[in-house]
Amino acid sequence: MRLVLGSDHAGFELKQSLAKYLRELGHEVLDVGTHNTESVDYPDYAEAVAEALRDGRAERGVLICGSGVGASVAANKIPGIRAGLCHDAYSAHQGVEHDDMNVLVLGARVIGPGLAKELLRGFLHASFSGEERHVRRLGKVKAIEARYLHSER
After folding, report:
1. Is 122 exposed, middle or buried (0-12, 13-18, 19+ CB in 10 A)?
2. Which positions are annotated as active-site residues?
3. For all residues of the chain together, what is the average pLDDT?
4. What pLDDT is attached to residue 150?
5. What is the pLDDT of residue 98?
6. Does domain 2-128 have CATH number 3.40.1400.10?
7. What are the extents of the domains in the chain?
């Protein structure tokens, strides 16, 4: 699978570890930064991950900041992005199966590398179920997005 990874300074070390792990598993990894632990702003990397998905350079994304909250908020502002902050295994796969989540968001100051790898495995091995109720709900989410994209607010 082609994956895009991005993080701010707080998530840099976890991102590096996960990128190595993913490459060892045979995945193609696009790292959009940051590339060190110097302080940076998470919205820049949320946007970079989202752009790679929207441009088709990756199939799914992983975004990491300190808590995961800010990166999740920023990524979900971008049309077509369904980013879920996950700190448990159930949410990591269920978010894909039920909500067609395309970005896994992690909080590097909340979870450790072992749990991060477990969440990543669940995210990568899951696929959207296509069940009618989930398709219907996803359609409503997309309709909300479309209304606000065309709104004059």
Report:
1. buried
2. 65, 98
3. 97
4. 80
5. 98
6. yes
7. 2-128
